[in-house]
Amino acid sequence: MSNTQNYTSLGQLVGQRILMLLLLSTAVMLQGCMSTTEVKSTSVTPVIQEREELPETMLLDVGIKLFDPGLAREEDESDEDEIVFAEIRHAESRYFSYLLMETIQQSAAWGAVRVVPSSEAVVDVLVDGTILQSDGEILSLEISVQDATGKHWFTRQYEDKSSRYAYDRRNKVDIDPFQDVYNRIANDILNYRRSLAMNELATIHTVAELKFAAMFSPQAFEPYLRKDEDGLLVVVRLPSEQDPMFNRIRQIRERDYLYIDTLQEYYGGFARTMKLPYQQWRKESYSEVMAMRALQRSADRSKITGIAAVLTGVLAMGKSNSQLGRAAGSVAAAAGSYITKSGFDKEAEAQIHVEALQELGDSLEASIEPQVIELEDRTVTLTGTVENQYKQWREILHDIYKLDSTAEQRVIH
Fold first, then answer.
1. What are phi and psi of 128, to 5 degrees?
2. What is the mean pLDDT of each successive set of 10 residues along the chain, which is 413 residues long?
3. What stretch of H or E contains 161?
4. What is the Cα–Cα distance from 378 to 374, expressed in whole angstroms?
């Protein structure tokens, strides 16, 4: 065999070895740095049932404030891997609140459990939630709970990951893919309430009633409460059961309850209307998110592999003393360029999935527009969002209280 043939074989062998070493080293690096193991459980934590019967006066009422969509947080902590649609988040804030309300009711451990449009609603226990992540695959919520005295029960984050099985049409179980999150929240709230003494429960209930009264007549009822050294409200004294002003405010509060109960019909109808299109969106979102993330991982691997191949090829060309060795390095660099281009092409394909999600979001927005609420006991025009309507309703209650007080004073005089 001639020297030329020997050099040719040697050059080809060098080129092949370079490419093999490159691919092996890159594979090891990717395996160590990018591989993750995902465990997705389909088990659901059961809701704890209250076995003990409590006196009605000890049954605390729970208000679940409409969840914060978490959009401000998304702007501050933007994540390229997370896709957020404002219209969907606003809808989810209502939907998740309602699902949590239904879950807490299942424990049979509370008085009235309602979704409330704002923290202005005076309740025994207020649950406040923020949506941290929601994309069909992962649901992450931050939940804060406090009672009417101002005592903070806890703030915790809850997260769950769904599986493709949850969106399989053959799965006949009608359960939310993230029901485990709501069950765990309900159980934590109940476990904290169980840690309180009976007199503490009674105090919470009384403070809530006096706080409501003080909203309508501060001069008359604020003296019944004071803050202790921890900043918590405590009862100084109680109004007489025959106090006409206090009884009138109790009637006002009953009207407020009736209105909030009307809101439950709205939120329930909203949730039922939203369920099918939202579940379909979740299913599509899950598929799109999983496809997009897989493509992004594949694109990242292709770009890393390609760039490494280019660098290795360039290095081989620079260090080789033979023409054939430089040629082998050139082949490696060219192959690396192709792999890198493939990575960017896959990234562009992932963007197509992002656009598909946007279209799904737009179609959902059209399906869940808010409804106007009609009051049964009187003809009142309430406009705007549910939250704005509740503010208007509170103003109407103040007007009713003033009119009743004025009428009573005229009768006395």
1. -120, 130
2. 49 49 47 42 82 83 95 62 71 91 95 91 96 90 97 97 70 79 97 94 95 93 94 94 91 89 84 79 70 57 51 52 52 52 51 51 48 55 74 84 66 47
3. strand 152-161
4. 9
Following DSSP, what letter does each residue of 42-92 receive, concatenated? Answer: ---PPPPPP-SPPPGGG---EEEEPPB--HHHHHHT--TT----HHHHHHH
Nearest to 177 by CA among 68, 41, 48: 41
Q: Is 212 within 8 Å of 257 (Cβ atoms)?
A: no
Q: Which residues pair with 126 in a beta bridge?
A: 63, 146
| CA 137 to chain CA centroid, nearest Å | 12
List b or e across 113-133, with b for residues whose CB sees 16 or more CB atoms inside 10 angstroms.
bbbbbeeebbbbbbbbbbbbb
Crossing angle of helices 386-412 and 198-216, rounded to 10°: 80
262 vs 67: CA distance, rounded Å: 19
- Radius of gyration for the chain, computed over Cα atoms and rounded to the nearest angstrom: 31
Cβ–Cβ under 8 Å, residues 222 and 77: no
40: Cβ contacts below 8 Å, ≥ 6 apart? 161, 162, 163
Question: Cβ(368)–Cβ(90) under 8 Å?
Answer: no
CB burial of 284-321 (b: ≥16 within 10 Å; e: otherwise) equals: bbbbbbeebeebbbbbebbbbbbbbbbebbeebbeebe
Place of tokens 């309740």: 123
Using a cut of 0.85, tell me whether the model's pTM lies above it. Answer: no
CA distance 393 to 171: 43
Pairwise CA distance, residues 149 & 213, whole Å: 14
What pLDDT, on the 0 to 100 scale, is given for residue 342? 53
Q: Which amino acid is at 126?
A: L
Structure tokens given for 208: 């809530």
Q: 368-373: list long-range contacts, CB under 8 Å, 24+ apart.
A: 368/91, 368/270, 368/273, 368/274, 368/277, 368/278, 370/270, 371/266, 371/269, 371/270, 373/262, 373/263, 373/266
The four Cα atoms 88, 131, 185, 97 give a dihedral, to 10 degrees, of -40
Q: Going along 351-397, which residue ranges are E strands?
A: none
Centroid of chain to Cα 192? 22
> Cα–Cα distances in Å, from 46 out to 172, 186, 239?
19, 10, 42
Distance of alpha carbon 385 from alpha carbon 391, whole angstroms: 10
